């Protein structure tokens, strides 16, 4: 009974709560041309964001089954996977922490089919605001551009978690910002990967500041 409630009842409650909560938020886009590219592009790309800025973007990008999310095969992951499916995303079960090679292969397969993935730049465990190299390496292997994204709100709660998770308050103003594409050369060497890592970090931080 507990498993049934956790897997089938709670996700619907959370889904309804997020929809109502985010519906009250007044959203604005700073660079509409960047979002137009996301909507109209027929090729693969990798959307990436900071872990602490997931909440509203999870809602903003909903109803896009061509967007694939990597979610761990844990008990908590079961709940999140079900919620993400209700929001309209496609799901890949895997972990960049426990089985990074297998997870990377799954993401690469999706991108080589011409579809898209969303990858958290600083991962599920941090360190905060430090881009990991996984998304950069995958971008180079698949020749898929990285597209940074961020949002900020005028009124929010910042949780005391490792990622300083941002929780927008209802009826606040929200600004969503997409950055320019970051192109990673095929078979990039270690120096280029480090340069792109720094470029991604700077882009995400500038987008966050610009949104504010």
Structure description:
The chain has 212 residues and is α/β, with parallel strands linked by helices. It has one domain (2-211): Glycerol-3-phosphate (1)-acyltransferase, CATH 3.40.1130.10. It contains 7 helices and 9 strands; from the N terminus they run αβαβαβαβαβαββββα. The chain has helices at 2-23, 32-40, 55-60, 75-86, 100-112, 134-142, 190-211; strands spanning 26-29, 45-49, 67-71, 90-93, 116-120, 146-153, 156-158, 166-168, 173-178. The chain has a 7-stranded mixed beta sheet with strand order 1-9-6-2-5-3-4, with helices on both faces. A two-stranded antiparallel ribbon has the order 7-8. A hairpin with a 7-residue loop joins strand 7 (156-158) and strand 8 (166-168). Helix 1 (2-23) packs across helix 4 (75-86) and helix 5 (100-112) packs parallel to helix 6. It is globular, with a radius of gyration of 17 Å.
In short:
The protein is an alpha/beta fold and 212 residues long.
Mean pLDDT: 91
What CATH calls the topology is Glycerol-3-phosphate (1)-acyltransferase
Helix fraction by DSSP (H/I, runs of at least 4): 40-55%
Count of structural domains: 1
Derived from helix and strand composition plus strand pairing, the structural class reads: alpha/beta
CATH superfamily: Glycerol-3-phosphate (1)-acyltransferase
Keywords:
212 residues; alpha/beta; Glycerol-3-phosphate (1)-acyltransferase; seven-stranded mixed β-sheet; two-stranded antiparallel sheet; 7 helices; 44% helix
């Amino acid at each position: 009974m507990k498993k049934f409630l956790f897997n089938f009842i709670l996700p619907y409650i959370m889904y309804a709560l997020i929809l109502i909560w985010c519906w009250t938020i007044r959203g604005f886009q700073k660079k509409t041309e960047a979002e137009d590219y996301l909507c109209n592009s027929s090729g693969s790309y990798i959307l990436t964001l900071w872990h602490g800025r997931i909440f509203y973007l999870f809602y903003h990008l909903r109803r896009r089954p061509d967007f694939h999310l990597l979610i761990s095969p844990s008990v908590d992951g079961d709940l999140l996977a079900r919620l993400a499916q209700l929001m309209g995303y496609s799901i890949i079960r895997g972990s960049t922490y426990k089985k990074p090679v297998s997870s990377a292969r799954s993401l690469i397969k999706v991108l080589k089919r011409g579809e898209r993935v969303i990858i958290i730049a600083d991962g599920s465990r941090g360190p905060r605001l430090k881009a990991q190299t996984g998304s950069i390496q995958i971008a180079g292997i698949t020749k898929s551009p990285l597209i940074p994204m961020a949002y900020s709100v005028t009124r929010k709660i910042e949780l005391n978690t490792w990622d300083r998770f941002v929780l927008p308050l209802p009826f606040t103003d929200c600004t969503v910002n997409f950055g320019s594409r970051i192109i990673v050369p095929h078979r990039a060497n270690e120096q280029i990967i480090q340069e792109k890592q720094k470029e991604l970090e700077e882009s995400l931080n500038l987008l966050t500041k610009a949104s504010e």
